[in-house]
């Protein structure tokens, strides 16, 4: 009897949250979808160089955004947004990195904040990288 009442209450709370559009406040996580992620680099690097598009980037399995803004030149940032730690997306064709968490934007050239709630919290943290064989590795 008591378990039946708890189940009925949970159902009513869930229905109430959905009706009020309060999914985040009621326990469901409406987090944005994670950024596209590169597959593992077979020799222990962050990513394979071939997986990093020229003019863009990919996020490694361990959360490093590896960029190739010019052919053969690799740079990287910690993909963790300084606002509330969502992972940022690789840059678009204009060189803007977006955090879908709360829509902060960063310059791919240097990781500085353009706008959004990350303003004043510092930019993306640079990660030193180099090419080793066919992979991008931490320097
Ligand atoms: S976590 Fe990136 S803008 Fe909020």
Describe the protein in words:
The protein contains one helix and nine strands; from the N terminus they run H-E-E-E-E-E-E-E-E-E. With 139 residues, it is of the alpha+beta class. The chain folds into two domains: 1-29; 31-138, Rieske [2Fe-2S] iron-sulphur domain (Rieske Iron-sulfur Protein), CATH 2.102.10.10. The strands form three sheets. Strands 1-9-8 form a three-stranded antiparallel sheet, with no helix packed on it. It has a three-stranded antiparallel sheet with strand order 2-3-4, with no helix packed on it. Strands 5-6-7 form a three-stranded antiparallel sheet, with no helix packed on it. The longest helix has 19 residues, at 2-20. It is globular and about 40 Å long. It binds FE2/S2 (inorganic) cluster. The site of FE2/S2 (inorganic) cluster has 11 residues, from loops. Pfam families: Rieske (PF00355). One of its GO terms (molecular function) is oxidoreductase activity, acting on paired donors, with incorporation or reduction of molecular oxygen. This is Rieske domain-containing protein. InterPro entries: Rieske_2Fe-2S, Rieske_2Fe-2S_sf, TAT_signal. Keywords: 2Fe-2S, Iron, Iron-sulfur, Metal-binding.
């Amino acid at each position: 009897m008591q378990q039946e009442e708890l189940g009925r209450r949970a159902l009513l709370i869930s229905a109430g949250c959905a009706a009020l559009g309060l999914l985040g406040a009621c326990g469901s996580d409406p987090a944005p979808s994670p950024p596209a992620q590169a597959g593992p680099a077979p020799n222990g690097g962050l990513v394979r160089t071939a997986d990093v598009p020229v003019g863009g980037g990919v996020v490694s399995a361990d959360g490093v955004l590896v960029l190739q803004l010019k052919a053969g030149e690799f740079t990287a940032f910690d993909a963790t947004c300084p606002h509330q730690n969502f992972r940022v997306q690789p840059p678009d064709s204009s060189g803007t990195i977006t955090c879908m968490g709360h829509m902060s934007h960063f310059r791919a050239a240097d990781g500085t904040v353009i706008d959004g709630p990350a303003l004043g919290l510092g930019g993306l943290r640079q990660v030193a990288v180099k090419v080793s064989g066919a992979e991008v590795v931490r320097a």
